[in-house]
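Weekly modeling sync, notes
Attendees: S.R. (lead), two postdocs, one rotation student

Agenda item 3: backlog of single-chain predictions. S.R. asked that every request posted to the team notebook include the full sequence so nobody has to chase files. The rotation student volunteered to paste the first one in as an example of the format we agreed on. Action items at the bottom.

Example entry:
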Amino acid sequence: MNPRRSVTIRSGFTLMELLVVIMVIGILASSLLFAMYNAVQQAKEARTKAQIAKLHELLMTRWDSYRTRAIRVQGLQSAARRNARTVATARLLALRELMRLELPDRKEDVLDPIAEPARGVTFLVYGGDDVYIPRPACNREYLRRVANLVQPANLTAGAAKWTEVYQDAECLYMIIASMQDIAGNGLDFLHEGEVGDLDEDGMPEILDSWGKPIAFIRWAPGFVEHPGPDFTFQTADDIPSYSNLQIVDPEGSPDPFDPLRIDKRAPVTMDSSGTAEYQFNFALYPLVFSGGPDELLDIVRFDYDDTTDPPTQVAFNFFRSGGGVVNDPYAILPTSGRRLGMPFLNSDGYKDNITNHGLGEGE
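Predicted structure, as returned to the notebook:
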C-alpha cells in the first residue's frame, strides 16, 4: 500500500511577500503624489501668469499714456522758456516726477513731501528756478487711503501705521484700485483670496497663487540690462562677477519718454575690472513679479549693505526736495552699487520668478 502523501495548503502571504507588495504600493502612491504636486504647481504657475499678465495690461494703459501726456510745467522764468533745451529738460523732470507720484513703488513716493505747500504742488528743482507740477488726483487718492488707516483720518498717523515690509506690493494694489472706467474697477478681475494683508497694517497686497505678495518696481534698469527679461547670460548662469553680463544697447532701445535725448550720460564703470559698464537712457517699463514655486524673489528691490551677513537694508529715496535731478529711472544705488531689479548672482532663487517682462513691447 502506497503511503498517503500530505498536502500543505497556504492560508496567507509570507512576510517577504507583504513587504514587496507594500513597497510597490508605496512607489505607486509616491509617483501619484509627485504627479499631483507637479499638476498643482503648474496650475499655480498658470494662474499667477494670468494675474501678472492682467496687471501688466492695466499698468501699460497708464504707462503708455505718458508718451503723449500733457504736462503742466510751472515756475520757469521767462528767460528759461525761450530756451528749447531748458523747456525740454524741465518737461522730462516733470514727467518723471508725475510717474513717481502716480506709479509709486514705496511709501516715500506717496508721502514725500507729506507737508504740501499751500498751492498743493510737488516741487522740482531746475537751475535757479522752482519748477513744479500740480499734485495729480490719483496721488491725492493714495494720501486719503493712507490717512484713513486710522480714525479719525490723519495722514501723519496713517503713515506711521503703514509698514514697509510689503510697501511695493501695497503700492501696486493702490495703483490698480485707482484705475476706474465705465466697465468697472481694476481690481474686479481678482478673486476672493487673491487679496490679503500679510503684515496687518491695513494696506492690502495682491497675492500670487502661493499666497505671497506680487512685487512691483516702477523702474527696474538692473532687470532689463543685467541680464534681461529671459534671465539669459552671454556665458554661464553662475558668473561670479558682473563683467560678462548681457548689456542692452541704449542706441537701439532709447527711452521713449526722452525723444530728444536730453538725458545723455556717458556709461559708468560697473566694477573694478573695468570690463562692464552701467548704461543710461534705454527703454524701461514697470516690473511686476512673483517669486514663483520657490517663493524667492532674489533681485535688488532696495538699497542694501552687502558687506554684512546677511545683507542689511539701507534707507534710500530717489526723491529729495532741493536735490536736483535725483528722481532717476537709471539710478545706481549708493550703498550697494547695484541697480533696482538686478538678480542676485550668488543665488538661483530668481530663475523661476514669474514676471511681466516678455509680455509686451519692452522685451
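Discussion: group reviewed the output briefly. Confidence is low (pLDDT under 50) at residues 228-240, 321-325.
Action items: rotation student to repeat for the remaining queue; S.R. to check formatting next week.
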